[in-house]
Amino acid sequence: MGINVAIDGPAGAGKSTIAKLVAKKMGYIYVDTGAMYRALAIHFLNKGISPEDEEAIILAVKGADVKIRYEAGVQQVYLNGENVTERLRDEAVGNMASASSAIPRVREKLLMLQKDLAKQFDVVMDGRDIGTCILPDAEVKIYLTASVKTRAKRRYDELAAKGIECDFAAIEKDIEERDRRDMTRETAPLKQAEDAVLVDSSDMTIEEVTEKITALCRDRRER
């Protein structure tokens, strides 16, 4: 039984960045759901299935087993025992992943694989409902947030650095709207788990947030 770390929070809070850093520092596995969807896509392509053939995808998903491992500090993704990491970014794989990820049975399969990983290894997962729905028994639960203005500024700076013209007020409004949708959706709404530690990163550096969470992980591991 591994130690599970669940990091939830609103859009733009830096969950993925922090989750990857925490996993690296602790030697845990960061569960990259995007990579897992792409591995499933390779499984469907290997069987010659078209992205439009939902029925065939549903039948094929039963025979897929996806694992994430770290070898020499680098993420490797295995499909039915075969390392498929080098194929993950193929265009055809991306197209299949985009189509198949909308199918409920595929999402259910991925959830089962995620929970299986969490039973076997020390993992870090980030999202909207990890601590409340996917890993309700996680040993470490974090609700990572920041003010809307802070999150909007981070997104604005990110886009500006890429040379993309953007409007700060529009970004801020979009984040507020995403928060509202995420918190009021019928299925697995975004909310802080009762036993989660609130971490407001508005006035914290990435390093400070990472250290705070890794300290909680070390404390839990030493119990």
Explain this structure to me?
This protein is α/β, with parallel strands linked by helices. The protein has 2 domains: 1-28 and 123-223, P-loop containing nucleotide triphosphate hydrolases (Rossmann fold, 3-Layer(aba) Sandwich); 32-121, 3-Layer(aba) Sandwich (Rossmann fold), CATH 3.40.50.300. The protein is 51% helix and 16% strand. It contains 9 helices and 8 strands. The strands form 2 sheets. Strands 2-6-1-7-8 form a 5-stranded parallel beta sheet, sandwiched between helices. Strand 3 (66-71) and strand 4 form a beta hairpin. The two termini are 15 Å apart. The model has no long low-confidence stretch (mean pLDDT 92).
Please outline what is shown here.
The protein has 223 residues and is of the alpha/beta class.
Q: Which percent bin holds the helix content?
A: 40-55%
Could you name the CATH class of the largest domain?
Alpha Beta
Shape: globular
CATH homology-level superfamily of the largest domain? P-loop containing nucleotide triphosphate hydrolases
Largest sheet: 5 strands, parallel
Q: Write down the Rg.
A: 18 Å
Descriptive keywords:
single chain, 223 residues, alpha/beta, Rossmann fold, 5-stranded parallel β-sheet, 9 helices
